């Protein structure tokens, strides 16, 4: 993939440079005509090639869930520790899996109302 992305980025950069130079030369002409279609097409092709090359060269996306990311990191560190012969008992990313979620105010309010009713009947 690196050869393809590097080639696309190089070709896109050459085309972009040529299109910009051609547009500059065209702007120096005494006529006030619009930019020729071939320069516009070359510019769009250069931008498209650069976008494809950059996307192909980019690394994989990381997971957005902390528990997935922490589990992946934990497994990688555990494998590295096993290779080195230094296996630890405690997982440093364990807290990501067992942490509390959001506080449910409505259920807490209902629990409190039930508690008050139970206290009033006694």
From TrEMBL:
Keyword Cytoplasm among UniProt keywords: no
Organism: Lophium mytilinum
Protein name: Magnesium transporter
Membrane-traversing stretches: 32-57
Keyword Magnesium annotated: no
Family classification: Belongs to the membrane magnesium transporter (TC 1.A.67) family.
Upper taxonomic lineage: Eukaryota, Fungi, Dikarya, Ascomycota, Pezizomycotina
GO biological process, one term: protein folding in endoplasmic reticulum
Principal location listed in the UniProt entry: membrane
Matches recorded under InterPro entries: EMC_subunit, MMgT
Keywords of the record: Membrane, Transmembrane, Transmembrane helix
Localization terms from the record: Endomembrane system
Superkingdom, natural source: Eukaryota
GO cellular component, one term: EMC complex
Membrane topology value: Multi-pass membrane protein
């Amino acid at each position: 993939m690196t050869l393809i992305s590097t080639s696309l980025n190089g070709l896109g950069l050459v085309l972009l440079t040529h299109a910009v130079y051609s547009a500059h030369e065209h702007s120096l002409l005494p006529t006030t005509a619009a930019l020729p279609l071939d320069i516009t097409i070359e510019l769009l092709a250069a931008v498209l090639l650069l976008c494809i090359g950059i996307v192909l060269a980019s690394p994989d996306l990381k997971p957005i869930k902390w528990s997935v990311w922490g589990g992946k990191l934990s497994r990688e560190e555990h494998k590295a520790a096993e290779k080195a012969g230094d296996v630890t008992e405690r997982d440093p990313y364990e807290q990501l899996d067992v942490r509390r979620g959001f506080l449910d105010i409505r259920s807490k309010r209902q629990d409190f109302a039930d508690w008050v009713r139970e206290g009033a009947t006694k």
